[in-house]
Model the fold of this input.
Amino acid sequence: MSNQAEKRRKVRTPVSHAVYYSDGAFHATGVTKDLTSSGSCLRGSHLVKVGMELFVLLIPRDQKALLVKKATVRWVADSEFGLELSEEDCGPVGELTDEDLERQKGPVSLMTN
Done:
């Protein structure tokens, strides 16, 4: 993994936030290890493969959650993996209003029992 650190374009700030991630076929949880506007390192409960595209929900303790519509897995080492993020695929998540629910054209939650 040291080669990956050498290839990084930006210094990553160590952070620890809860994360939900999915490719549609599986749903998993994890924790961020570091984060920038263009990438992140996660430790997760479900193994991923290089090249996978994931939906990610980053959940800080005292801020609004961050929704990443598409994050690409760039490297994997056991339960840790690196994601490439794109600003156009990221956005804050606010609370849903009744109006938002009426406009919703799909499930309100992606989590299944």
Residues 104-113 have pLDDT under 50 and may be disordered. The longest strand covers residues 65-77.
